[in-house]
Amino acid sequence: MTDHNAEPSNAVMPEALEAASLAALPGIRHAFFTRRGGCSEGLYTSLNGGVGSADTRDAVQENRRRMAAHFNLPASNLVSLYQIHSADVAVVEAPFPIDERPRADAMVTNRPGIILGIATADCGPLLFADPQAGIIGAAHSGWKGAISGVLEETIACMETLGADRSRISVALGPTISRTAYEVGPEFITRFKATDVSYERFFTPSALEGREGYAQFDLPAFIGARAQAAGIKTFENLGLCTYADDARFYSFRRATHKGEIDYGRLISAITLSKR
Questions:
Q1: Angle, nearest 10°, between helix axes 150-160 and 218-228?
Q2: 91: left (phi over 0), alpha (psi -120 to 50) or beta
Q3: Cα–Cα distance measured from residue 39 to residue 3, given in angstroms and rounded to the nearest whole number
């Protein structure tokens, strides 16, 4: 039986990936946590941070405690959202209980010690930082959030706190790749109706007999939106959630396998004390 109250040893510390562009910034700590280093079992093995999953609450709380410990902070400092695939952004001034999380898909803060944590399992996790202003952000960007402007709204909200988009660095963590993301005609039509130039993010389906279907490049689309928004430093880790079962959860992979649920990856960022 797993002891969820035990302090994590080096053997069970969560695996965390970093973006070189963010790692180089003073006063900023971040992590794109993989699924390794947690205590969840079965479909959720092992570092499931999703409070919206059907995993046991004790396991999720322990996993989140380990993530917070990665930053040498208490679990209560790790805040998350009730994500709704929107472009809504919350300004976080103090930690809040997980059961009182705002309905939104992005957060910003200028308060040191608060860990902004975004949950994903194919959608794009975005972490933002303006170290000079001491302002950070995190956003959940699936296709709905991307096309409705969650990235742009996060940048604008950071600017209301004093950030400058010319200084903001943005990193995109593990996301479903074009080769794994087939979409149907209605999806394609919606994007092209918004902007005909978006056709460049689609290529014909890789599967036979799928006329009218296409492969959608979500990471490239998010990157293009960042460039158009005036972001000078954008880094894509280039890691596909669908293709790497050992390290990442994937909603689409779980669906294709007929699994009843899936774990959630947590991508997090925090300000050190100034």
A1: 40
A2: beta
A3: 9
- Residue 256 buriedness (CB in 10 A; 0-12 / 13-18 / 19+): exposed
Query: Two tokens at 27?
Result: 């006063």
> Sign of dihedral through CA atoms 80, 82, 84, 88?
negative
- Collapse the DSSP code of 28 into the 3-class scheme (helix H, G, I; strand E, B; otherwise coil) and give the result: strand
pLDDT at 8: 40
- pLDDT value of residue 206: 82
Dihedral sign of CA atoms 89, 93, 95, 101 in order? negative
Q: Please indicate, yes or no, whether the overall pTM of this predicted structure exceeds 0.85.
A: yes
Q: How far apart (Å, rounded) are the C-alpha atoms in residues 112 and 90?
A: 16
Burial tier of 13 (Cβ tally within 10 Å: 0-12, 13-18, 19+): middle
Domain ranges of the chain: 12-176+233-271
Mean pLDDT by 10 residues, the chain (274 residues): 38 90 98 98 98 97 98 98 98 96 98 98 98 98 98 98 98 98 97 97 92 96 98 98 98 98 98 82
52: closest CA among 103, 116, 2?
A: 103
Separation CA 17–CA 27 (nearest Å): 18
Note the pLDDT of residue 10: 43
Does the domain at 12-176+233-271 match CATH 3.60.140.10? Answer given as: yes
Name the E strands within 36-162.
Answer: 78-79, 89-91, 106-109, 115-120, 124-130, 135-141
Question: Which pLDDT value is given to residue 274?
Answer: 62
**Residue 190 one-letter amino acid:** R
Cβ 234 vs Cβ 244: under 8 Å: no
The residues pairing with 90 across neighbouring beta strands, listed in sequence order, are 107
